[in-house]
Amino acid sequence: MRKPSESYLKLKKATDKILSGAGLVVLSPVFAGIAIAIKLEDGITAPVFFKQKRVGIHKSHFMLYKFRSMQTDTPHDMPTHLLTDPEQYLTGTGRWLRKTSLDELPQLLNIFQGDMAVVGPRPALWNQYDLLEERDKYGANDIRPGLTGWAQIHGRDELEISEKARLDGYYVRHLNLFMDMRCILGTIRSVLKSEGVVEGGTGARHMQNCNKKKLLIVTNHSYMLYRFRKELIQRLMEDYEVVISTPFVGHEEDLQELGAHCIETEVDRRSVNPVTDLRLLRTYKKILKRENPDLVITYSIKPNIYAGYLCGKMKIPFLANVQGLGTAFQKPVLSDMVTVMYRTALRKVEKVIFENQANAQEFKKRRILSEEKEVVLHGAGINLEEYRYHFYPNNEKIHFLYLGRIMKEKGMDELFGAIERLRKDGCEFVLDLVGFFEEEYRKKVEQLQKEGIVRFYGFQEDPRPFYAQADCVVLPSYHEGMSNVLLEAAASGRAIITTDIPGCREAVDNGKSGMLCRVKSADSLYKAMKRFTELSRDKREAIGKAGREKMEKEFDKNQVVEETVKVITGNRSKQERGRL
Question: Fewest CB within 10 angstroms: 168, 178, 198, 247, which?
Fold first, then answer.
């Protein structure tokens, strides 16, 4: 578990002392005004402050201060959410104090004394053993509790205990100045809007979700799901409680921040070991029984087959997504086996969403699926706000960009063969490689780097700066569902050279927004890249602009999300079947 920086913790403690001391002085008139209001309502002898034993750093105890907002006969050490009708205990002034969060102001004294921080997990009651136990899982009991925190701005009283603890753990793992500023700014917004304040409301969000149907998403890659489907998930959460079964390989915390509940599920994407797959089948069965979803959506081959088969057996409505056929349909024996498995799994599927027409036709040809169950959409679409048009660069040399896994099936042999011919021709260019490489290509990449025609950047979380500096994006792939790289490149205003295959050709108007070459042909790829180097800068820029226009017209994420939701919710008419 990642621990916070010791140097930042020291700086944070010193800053907290300065800020709380200044706050006590500056806000002293507010303190006096609130004290007078409490006395006027409850009498001169009524206490102004409420003291309660709370849990501090490393589960030590301290006395927490608040302005008293409840009647003096309220049970003292009972969490508010365990009180029967907690509203009955609130005083008139107390109700206003709670709504504005001004009842928390005396905790500035706790911060000044060093028991608390401005930002941190909210201090638990000494007897809130369930919360303390959950926080132990995330190391959230090992830092000073705070006046406000990450959980506070993501639901406050609405959150269940387990969700509060998970959010506290997220804060601990990401504790730095930027995170603290996000919490402070989020608190200001929440206080102004009175968000998340529900008396006795621990778990209120869960109660709200009880009124929604439950949607289970089953996938094999949390990173890819968040990267390309987050807008769809946000839209679905308007109507569904969303649960996601996925391996945790990145962005799982971001998915949970969206409001989804994530279940870590190990999926070996490449294995054909029947023992491993049988274990996955059992895992999916347990998840389906426990979650009891109203609808299931699956992505990629193993979730499609194994979760799809179980949904059919358990009579759970489900939709499958085919994001390309991959190697499973390239090898004869494996292809026959996968065909039979798909036929069995998709027997009771409601709809199968494809990213290109050719993949849908392949399923039809193999008699996996009847035509009325197929829907072809424009992949995941492209977020045109995230991927804005970039003005065309003034590079001294042509910058070709390859972004993706550096592996044989992405056309690496053809790409390296093409650039070596371009070099012999004396073309002025450089190839930027962004992505992980398979070990077999290590020596080749290192050699081309030494020769000065390749610059290798490894995997990059944000590809947009690389699109911005590129003249042309090259993807000589053997097979794709719908290439998100090509959509991102075109949206950024960059020309494309790619193979004439399903999942790539759809992103290009050949000769207008890019060029198509033959698959597995280094010669065809070389000729396309050669032609591009001979174009004027104005022509290259015009090709990129045409790509942006195509994305705006055909692949806008908002449009694709709404079309997908129509399919999922079953609101499409018979006339809308087929290609949208």
Answer: 178
